[in-house]
TrEMBL record, chains A, B, C, D:
Its cofactor is Zn(2+). This is Carbonic anhydrase. PANTHER family: CARBONIC ANHYDRASE (PTHR11002:SF76). The keyword Metal-binding applies. One of its GO terms (molecular function) is carbonate dehydratase activity. It comes from Cognatiyoonia koreensis. Keywords: Lyase, Metal-binding, Zinc. Zn(2+) binds at C47, D49, H108, C111. It catalyses: hydrogencarbonate + H(+) = CO2 + H2O. InterPro entries: Beta_CA_cladeB (IPR045066), Carbonic_anhydrase (IPR001765), Carbonic_anhydrase_CS (IPR015892), Carbonic_anhydrase_sf (IPR036874). Binds 1 zinc ion per subunit. Pfam families: Pro_CA (PF00484).
Length: 215, 215, 215, 215
């Protein structure tokens, strides 16, 4: 069934504005990007959350970051079973095709996906336990993080679980042979970050202390 | 295995710059975004390609678009089999959780994923036929588009296939019951776009003529 | 005659520090830069002055800017006479070889070369009039700027002359056929900036008003 | 003809970020640099190549290095013929005006200018033989290096020629009376370096053995 509606006017107007200004002023660069193809230095794996703009935080130019965004910035375990794996395909393309030098996993505060996982694991959201719940089955990736949560108040445990989404993704990344090989060869480095939306803070995962350190 | 490296210096400096300016000037807004949670009007499904910045093209503010990015902006068919489905989870969260009013599928020129599909289907890239190729298995979603390509020169066929990645995604979207129900109820509309990176052009899918029309 | 001395110790130590940290943390990126070659978006023409670090001001990553630095950020008039022309060679390489999309001419406050020109033109530095003075003959490029200076106090006239070094360079740039052709084709844009070292200010040349405007 | 375009947005934002952080944190130092003028210890002559950041390799502070950058870090022979000589002017200013104590010539791997010279001299790039080719006429400075290349494979010969660009520049430097006088008086020392971009290696020219030695 073919179905589509015209774009809302306000987006059409904004596009025309962009074309007449940002594009017009850098036309040569856009043409070169089109002709030369992309040569991004880094892949970023971040959340779909509308409040997270990695290009803004890092002052990124067009062409700098290869960006995959999914719920809760998760990397599933390596599982080459012949089915569709969007995240794994993006990873394979970035590392083997584009040969990026960095993979940055960017978590954030107030993550709805992480909250869903928390509720599901603590029995507050039985609908997410349904085998047909896509969100539930996706958030299963984060279950091991919930099981290791220390006791404490919910806000603190939620924050810890948000950071676990970064650490589990980093760990799953190393389960992809093409990732761990590139890391061992010194051609790729992995980075874990957690961003506090309200405070604008950024913390980096430190593997030695297994904790997060503010910049 | 826990592994992570410090972020490259130039990104740390750029982050500090962002914190002291963009964040500082709109601190109140960031705090409200954190407290109120996100209320995006639209979900965008675009490619991971580093040259596609949907927030730039549409002058997006923090909080406006819920953005999922994967290789070739593909939506796989509805398949609730209990496995991890990143794209389907993002969709479910956007439509059922956030109740977005629009889903915009944004394709683009020079898409490396689409080119891979083209090569795979025409026998030029046997490595993508390997059951263990994540990129190959992901691009299987676009196979029906290759089979319907008209004869012609490669550049034209490639462009047609890029646009097919949008149309097939729109069609697969309607296979998700929560999507088609929301469309039928008038609560959701779907939009297909194709962006020419070098020329800055934007074309919209028109369901009536089953073709793309420039803005 | 072959002559060279060992590098001072403090630089050897700093190099070893860089190698063990900055290089080590981004080894993969350095290797890729070496294999893929450079794809800079912009050429920057700035002064040799030790206080002007364009990579710092613009948070530049390795590979972003093709940088030519000479006394007073000057572009001489187009003069293909078969002799050595370092600036013209750098321009030709950037525009025809690398196909950069932007050329940024960056002037600055307290420019010693501009001051030399001022003194030479006002008769205070006869040694610069000597045909054998390399600095004098290089600063001849800026003479037309001196002749158009409004009356006023010396500090103000010096600042105006510093800005004239940017405007004259922009004008000379357009005298290179490969530059003006690329500008006309929309593949290249030119930008003039003046930087106040002490205040950290940056002003941009605006062609419409023929003046400089602070950011 | 007056022509200029506004600076791309991402650079404007990055500048504002720099101003609010790096500049703000060291405002006093920037003001002193502005008031006292520059007193650099060394002049560096390096290539325009976007991958060579001498300030990074040597952890340079603002005010430390007077930096001239041209294609292939070349110093032309001393030739006071009354024309514009950008490199010679920079040299004269550094040695006679600023009285620097060191001149460092920094060559590097994968130098496009050196490759152009190689192709021109071996008949592969006739367009560079054109008297109007600025790049060709500039690379003529390196011709004597090509003529002395030992037989061998191209990659090895290219690397030897890159190092010859450093040695020829050192030799031409000594042809400038104000340079050789300062060297003889013990007020100036010259240094030749070659940098491997991919490996992060640095080699120093040793006049006694007429070869390069890794650090």
């Amino acid at each position: 069934m073919k179905y589509a509606k015209p774009l809302p006017d306000y987006l059409v107007r904004r596009y025309h504005g962009w074309k007449a200004t940002t594009y017009q002023e850098s036309k040569g660069w856009y043409r070169r990007l089109a002709e030369d193809g992309q040569h991004p230095r880094a892949m970023v794996i971040s959340c779909c959350d509308s409040r997270v703009h990695v290009t803004s935080i890092f002052g990124a130019d067009q062409g700098e970051f290869f960006i995959h965004r999914n719920i809760a910035n998760l990397v599933p375990p390596h599982n080459p079973d012949g089915h569709h794996h969007g995240t794994s395909a993006a990873l394979e393309y970035a590392v083997r095709g584009l040969k990026v030098s960095h993979i940055i996993v960017l978590g954030h505060s107030g993550c709805g996906g992480v909250e869903g996982c928390y509720q599901m694991c603590s029995g507050e959201a039985p609908e997410l336990d349904d085998p047909k719940s896509f969100v539930g089955r996706w958030m299963d990736i984060l279950r091991p993080g919930f099981e290791e949560l220390p006791k404490g108040d919910k806000a603190e445990r939620m924050r810890t679980l948000e950071k676990a989404s970064v650490v589990i993704s980093l760990s799953n990344l190393m389960g992809f042979p093409f990732v761990s090989d590139a890391v061992k060869d010194g051609n790729l480095s992995l980075h874990g970050l957690w961003h506090d939306i309200g405070e604008g803070a950024l913390e980096a995962y430190d593997a030695e202390t297994d904790g997060f350190v503010p910049f």
